[in-house]
Design a protein that fits this description.
Elements: E1 28-32, H1 40-50, E2 54-58, H2 64-67, H3 69-84
Parallel strand pairs: 1-2
């Protein structure tokens, strides 16, 4: 992951925030039950605020896309299929 992650642009911290996309677009949310970076209760609280169409809980750490790739990909593909109609 370190190879593909890029540092944020310098302007990112000074740009004005706009409306979050989750207010207007359908959302799916994945909660990592073993996350030690963001407490799972905070993840669940954020998910409830977004009113997602689906929440998936995984026994995974913060790096769930790496450790539970199939489940994360399944969630993304489900969202793509729903968006395609």
């Amino acid at each position: 992951m370190a190879v593909t992650r890029k540092a944020p642009l310098g302007s990112a911290s000074g740009d004005a925030a706009t409306a979050p996309a989750w207010r207007d677009k359908p959302v799916r949310y994945q909660v990592s039950a073993e996350d030690r970076m963001i407490h799972p209760d905070n993840e669940r609280r954020t998910a409830r605020r977004m009113s997602p169409r689906k929440v998936v809980g995984l026994d995974a750490s913060h790096a769930s896309p790496a450790s539970r790739a199939k489940e994360v990909v399944d969630l993304v593909e489900e969202a793509v299929r729903a968006a395609a109609g």
